[in-house]
User: Fold this.
Amino acid sequence: MQRVYGDTEVSLSGTARLQLSSVRRTKRALQDGGSFFDVRDHTFLTKALSLQVTSDGRHRQLSSVSNLNLNYSQNTYLDMKRLHSFALLLFLPAFSLIASTYDTSDAAAPAEHLVLTASASSERNLSHGPYLQEVTTDGATIVYETLTNAFSWIEIRKPGSTTVTKYYGSHYGLLDANTTHFAIRATSLEPGTTYQYRIATKQIDSFQPYKVTFASSTPTYTNWFTFDTVDPNKTTHSLFITSDMHNRPKVLERLLRGLDFATCDHIIYAGDMEDYMQTSSEEPYSAFIDKSVELFASRKPFQIVRGNHETRGDMARNFSYYFPRVSGQIYAACRWGDLEMIFLDCGEDKADTNSEYSGLVDFFAYRTQEAEWLKQVIASEDFKTAKYRIVVSHYAAPARGASGWAGYQDFEDKMLPLLKNAGIDLMVAGHTHPKTCVEVPVNDAGKGNTYPVIIQGYYSATRIDISADGKIKVKVLGTDGTTQLEKTYQHQS
Assistant:
């Protein structure tokens, strides 16, 4: 059997059962006996493909593939659980991959039998995740992707307890099913409490109007994961913040480890964690979610602020699909003990009429809406009674290096008048890629900001440690391991 998808020719032989799962949904790719191959609106392999190839003990990076042949072999195997935005599951004793035409990141490998492996979730029947989002005093959202179309739910318990509560994704009376993407909210949890969760999945073989056929009558379970709900009485806080990683997960890991992320209460990404959100080219899993899951995100949530690069690409309108909030908004405010956090959504940095946006953006009106929301937050009891108040956004306010950037300037014009009278202790931003972090002083250029601003990202990350005595310690670490800034601010009551 042979099919051509874009500039990729795929040949398959042998009797196999192959399933392919995109980031949005699963398409049955190969039926027993090789009767058809269907990827619909997705290409099977793309030039953006990046996988490790092993041949004669050498490792190479496979950057693009032209002609592939999958042939059954008793002596070699192919493990392809994750192929960029696709997840493949092969149910045969062994496969070999013969790449007759391909590019590598170094010298070309000989055209011979190669063993190809790609990263994947170690959990059963998951291609990505699970990762925690919006953990509060009484709830948590768990997001993950399954390898195949499925019906899935989460189970929550306290450690050592035999009492398990099931939670389902549900929309308009229908439980989420026949999909690969799940974002399920656990509610009615107790504050400052340790919980365990696991994921149950039943693979769906056929979804007909009056009959759904499951692959098995019993679900597949992951291991148990542990997380803590927010403690409303907490008076000390440790935050890790970075931005502008632009699809550099190894750099992200270096910064996380350099600032001892394991001892941080909260991990925050302040935008531009990827270059754009584009199907089959670059997506948030490969850019930073998979690395976050590997290091912490199944046990500790990350917060994400959208950068201007996350507004670009054919997947940009699905941002909340990956990072859901109960409010349905991208901007947010949350209370962690006596710390109030504000996460601002900046939008694009140029005018809405800029040709890059093809007439498809409306950020000036959006920022006006966000400013009205911010007024309400500042007037809320949570905000007023907080001891500390920290703002994280992709752009700084006051703006630095925003001359000629109409969108960036619009953000300052609408947010700065509200923030400078709100008793903010510190703002952390990114966007401008300073080689050494920039500390914007109080009343910068006479703009009246009453709080300092740290602009970091791309070359650095920030750790903030807040002690009960009102000290806010800031350390900015460069990607080269040097300390770019170390300073203590005193909270002003």
